[in-house]
Design brief:
Layout (H helix, E strand, L loop, with lengths): L2 E8 L5 E6 L5 E8 L7 E8 L2 E8 L17 E10 L2 E11 L5 E10 L7 E2 L15 E10 L2 E15 L2 E13 L6 E8 L5 E12 L2 E10 L12 E7 L6 E8 L13 E8 L2 E7 L1 H4 L3 E6 L1
Antiparallel strand pairs: 1-20, 2-3, 3-4, 4-5, 6-7, 7-8, 8-9, 10-11, 11-12, 12-13, 14-15, 15-16, 16-17, 18-19, 19-20
InterPro entries: Glyco_hydro_beta-prop_sf (IPR023296)
Protein name: Glycosyl hydrolase family 32 N-terminal domain-containing protein
Organism: Aquirufa avitistagni
Amino acid sequence: MEWIKKGNIFNACHAQVPIVDTYHDGFWRVYYSKRENRGPSKPYFFDVEAGNPSNILRHGEGPILEPGERGSFDWAGVMPTEIWQVGQLKYLYYIGWANRIDVPYHNNLGLAVSKDGGQTWEKFSTGPVFATSHREPGYVGTISIIEKDNLYYGYYLSCRKWEELNGRIEPIYDIKIATSENLIDWTPLNITAIGLEDGEGGISKASVLALNGQYYLWYAIRKSTNYREDPANSYRIKCAVSSDLIVWTKIETSGLDISPESTWENIMVEYPHVFTHNESTYMFYNGNGFGETGIGFAELS
């Protein structure tokens, strides 16, 4: 399997962590996070033609959610990370950002619900649905969900360690597994799906998909230092495969690399969101600057 890049389709602003809702008639809704005037992250969307995402049909007006009140888990930002259709409802999982004194920030997962097909959204609760606990001592970041035998598996970013490297306090995180029976109450299994190897510092934004009789998980991985500007250390998109959703084996194929000749993805590629539509498989992702240059997509050959 090989990804064929189709180009940068949206670069109107810093558009981070794209996720795609295909449960619409004739179009896909692409949610992303952006910051205005160095303020908190907020979720926005644009619509593209289904099967032809280079054709942007509509830009949403204003953010769909606002950060919480001072002192809440999402006061410093709201960043969408997964969307799930539940009957006539839509569940939008988002990363709630909070500032800290000892380290730069802390994340937990919140949930927003739409009862009108994604036109309006309301937060499920003022607190997170998946957060730091005795079962997950780190912070909880991005998540990707898949269902098997009436049980939901969530592949989430788990940050249990910070290190001071080259004068900066850097988060160290990997991808762990949690399960849920109702998509609201999550139980961390303390199992690492995708772990770090020598020199690596972060694995972010898993995207899991059943394909060709197996399960595939795409993820973004970086080195521990100098990953913001150095192409040798920055994010790449890699792939792993599993038959049971628990034990994952990294594979060298089916990943996505930077394009050195490009002006938008010559330093990094990251935050994949992979899905199928009409027997085709697509990946939406970010390029340089953690989404500063916008959103592109690729199609699986």
